[in-house]
Amino acid sequence: MDELHHLSATEALRAFRARRLSPVELTEAVIARAERTEPVVNALCHRFFEEALRQAELAERRYAGQGEPPRPLEGLPTVVKEDEPVTGQPWTQGSVRYRDAVAGHTSVFVQRVLDAGAIVHARSTASEFASAAFTHSELWGVTRNPWNPEFSPGGSSGGSAAALAAGSTVLATGSDTAGSIRVPASFSGVVGFKPPHGRVPVDPPYHLDTYVHSGVLARTVADVALMQNVVAGPHPADVGSLRPRHVLPDPAEPGRDLRGMRIALSADLGWAVDPEVRRNTREYGERLRAAGAQVEEVGISVPRAQVMRAAAIHFHYGFGAVIAAEGPGITPYAEAFARWAAEEAAGAGVLDGYAIETELYRPVGELFERFDALVCPTAATRGLVAGEDYVGHGPEVDGERLGHYLESLLALPFNIMSRCPVLAVPSGFARNGVPTGVQIVGRPFDDDTPFRIGAAAERPQHWPEVTP
């Protein structure tokens, strides 16, 4: 098999079971690829390569019929985002302040990945305190986009997305509070899923924060579904976790075309969006039509100013306040995030935020009375510059200089509408070589439909050749 490092998880599992490929061979290929690409991409902050190879040998024995049978993710190299705790491993939060911190427990989310047989060969980089839509920190330096290293792979789960695109992992975990899974997936040309709130357990106290989601990234829709079925399900420590456990059907099974499905398409949600992103979004709509769906471009408006106001209120009274409590000396972008939330939330209380969030969902909820799903861009821009802090300004989009980089993230509204499942998939490329993406938004708690749509319109992806 050529280019083992870019083999999909589902293909690898079939090859393992048929004894055409060993988990050791795949792990060796991924490690070799990481050693080649990391000088450019810088997506892996902690490496456990020797231990990974030992685990791969044990997985190989399972597939040979020795000992226990193989588990759902048996032998698949996987990176875990740095913000998730794993007992005995560093837990720095991307901050020099916690350079020497070691986790004393493993999150329920990650424990499910480990129990399913995944091999965690490395931890992936994130922005400090997972507080930005790009990935760099004083502790780990700049993580770069494998497609064009002048740009960021996005954030905060940028290391996970970049590792997938570079071929230095097969599966990856992420977390999503303002698009932190979907935005890196978009900029990196991979697939990411923000589950509806409660589908995947989250560690306390953030399990009570409706904006916060733990989720997964991979290179194909089927791979994301495979991993999502491992991590989903209720847990006694998370009062908001949903019962019963929902299992996604195989999104690629025969006969699952889109005939009879009605899909709403918006090229912008009423926001400033780069013309190339608009073009690729509409072209994705043509793919859906070719798969049999009835696609209608709609003029829906989810007011950007109101989204920013609601988000600022929410963050000011929660996540932003935690960052603010760190005091001076943190990265400029983390400090600016907490300051922005406080300033933009001035004069508002929690109930004011709830009122705005209610009104924001109304037009989307009305769409779902007529359509099975909504498709729109994930990010408005063709990319965020690698290493740029974006303090006091956002990127320029379609001739408009944005005041904050969050204004370029069409993913953010669906953290507010947190019960909607959202699958982020590639839609094409911009002229600068950076991928663009769309998000497939399902009705509240209807996880199956976004996966069905994403699989039906999926195309084989070529991958970048990263040259040190």
UniProtKB/TrEMBL annotation:
MF (Gene Ontology): catalytic activity
Domain named Amidase: residues: 25-448
Gene3D superfamilies cross-referenced by the UniProt entry: Amidase signature (AS) domain
Listed InterPro entries: Amidase, Amidase_CS, Amidase_dom, AS_sf
A Pfam family it matches: Amidase
Domain of life assignment: Bacteria
Protein family according to the UniProt entry: Belongs to the amidase family.
Listed name of the protein: Amidase
Organism the protein comes from: Spongiactinospora rosea
